[in-house]
Predict the structure.
Amino acid sequence: MISVEEASQIITAHQIDWGTETIPLPLANRRILAEAITADRDFPPFHRVTMDGIAVSIDTPITEGLFRIEGTQYAGESPKTITSRGSALEVMTGAVLPSNTNTVIRYEDLTFSEYGDKRFAALNTNVNPQQNVHHQGSDRRAGEVLLQAGIRLGSSEIGILASVGKSQVLVQKKPRVAIISTGDELVDIQVTPLPHQIRKSSGYQLAAALQEMGFASELFHLPDHPESLEKKLTELIQNFEILILTGGVSAGKKDFVPATLEKLGIQKQFHKVAQRPGKPVWFGVRAGQNAVFALPGNPVSTFACFLKYVRPYLLQGTLAPMKAVLSEKIIFKPELTYFLTVAASFNEEGRLMATPLKGSGSGDFANLLACTGFLELPADRSEFTAGEVFSYLSFR
Amino acid sequence: MISVEEASQIITAHQIDWGTETIPLPLANRRILAEAITADRDFPPFHRVTMDGIAVSIDTPITEGLFRIEGTQYAGESPKTITSRGSALEVMTGAVLPSNTNTVIRYEDLTFSEYGDKRFAALNTNVNPQQNVHHQGSDRRAGEVLLQAGIRLGSSEIGILASVGKSQVLVQKKPRVAIISTGDELVDIQVTPLPHQIRKSSGYQLAAALQEMGFASELFHLPDHPESLEKKLTELIQNFEILILTGGVSAGKKDFVPATLEKLGIQKQFHKVAQRPGKPVWFGVRAGQNAVFALPGNPVSTFACFLKYVRPYLLQGTLAPMKAVLSEKIIFKPELTYFLTVAASFNEEGRLMATPLKGSGSGDFANLLACTGFLELPADRSEFTAGEVFSYLSFR
């Protein structure tokens, strides 16, 4: 039996290159970028007016002044000029700074007056040169790398891609994901179960978690029967790159999943990890083609294994690690990593405090309702003190 | 000019009831539940075996024993019985506990042997009564409320809904969302801009942020021209419940947005909030029909206002508040709430540490790349010390 750390390393070492594809920008959110993105021009591309007001030319701070208004520079117009140093142009936020000016004075700092057909603005306060101008190239220079290949795109990266004109983006292909439940006690959700049956639920839960990560998935159910398991898995391996199975991986007499997967050429990388819940977890690959996660069937075990192993695999390490503070003492004697169900929230000190939830074992998924994630208590000791900090797997 | 707190209160007070609809469970993730969900049966619905092994009947802890195996109780089968107290049934995880047994002994704790056609299991260790059984109703009783109306569904709630057979779920209707950019300096992303033009980017960024919240949206662009603004907004108000406009809300000469919205019957609730960036933000409603957010056009201002005002409005207060620790001293003199761009990550103490990013003003959206969110520094003072904790608006 390997440790949780070894299991994570094995999974990371078996990333498969799914290839790349070019897709329209509006579909690229949450995808992994497969090209470096450079600035096609300076950011900002021109000396940009940041306040509505007037543009003037001054060399030193001034406390008074009267400027003749020669016209208006709107956003979207090519740059105008003033005819003399005492003149000004009205300027609108987002406009180019007129070419022979260097400073913008806000409307709030001016009093306007008219003499015949001439308009003047008098300064109410002090002004420094260069004020209210966002200088060309001050954020980024043309040619600078803005985004590296391998990052996961979020809303602000989508904004950057738009601004440099990437209407089409090269991203990594997404593997197709099948979620496959097993277990003869499971019935469809529309069905009223017999007393000894329960409805399928983990598949829906995993599909929702995958959706939040930007992955579509399809749900399947297979009976605890070796021939039909083999037949159906043969098909699924052809049609999906990622298989997430639930159930059928323990020591039970109908736990045919590991043997069937190996028979179909999915090479076992590990089976059983020193953890609770989720000890029977199985992982295998078919080189360059499939990654298969066979997770224990109890919904809490399934979910802990999903968050610990499947999520980082699919997100290729782009998930920011989280830590949380254990809020009360926990004793856990087995030499296993303990994925403790907790409700975590920020306290007044900005610490993420994780309160253990009383659970009655790995099948207790109603307790996941109050739960925001799992705190990962290491295997090498049995006492965990209030105030200690541990890795935290969040799902909210 | 109102405070950020007042603006938030006004927005909260103008929630609109969009009605409810019944949708299939797989579409319900991230939706707001509009019915209370009760357990249709006990959780678990039967005394459930939690380990593969044998089921026996014992009244006190035992340290040795030999049990005759009478058969197997698989998951999904109706309960069997043992014929005498010294007998046992093999049981598989997820099975019903055989009716006259009370304890499960794991395979790991047993040694099996055969005598003729009879099989026996000898105990290797000590066993307590009730071990490895998840008792009927121990998590939840039939009739108990599992989920309250008004919560936002996530993956674990989807799992619960499946388990109680809710293949169709009553949720709040989602408003249709239009994102409308204005500004004559903006060109399409496919276009090579002239020196004084820039590409539209905020709309794509907001659409991506909305997608992460589970909202679809459509993008529009309107020119800085009062008649065409009015004509197009008239249509958009009919076809979309939520309008998010960017640009055209400042004191500029072409800032026609607020006046046009009011002309169309969108009642202004506020215009201008004591904050930086984002001061010109405008909010209005048409009773029971539209909520309109007119945000400043600089991409960083737009995004701060979106996170502070639009996101909580659409999520109806279901977002867990976050706090982070300012990592270095900040001086900010204006009497404005300061939305400071920061990069936040967890330190070894489980504190979310927010490092201010040097920015060159509200137009500097390339700096959003390193940024993970905004720290909200209150308006009533000008010095903020390293180690202080503030509200944090996260977008990663």
In short: The longest helix of chain A spans residues 299-315. The two ends of chain A are 31 Å apart (CA to CA).
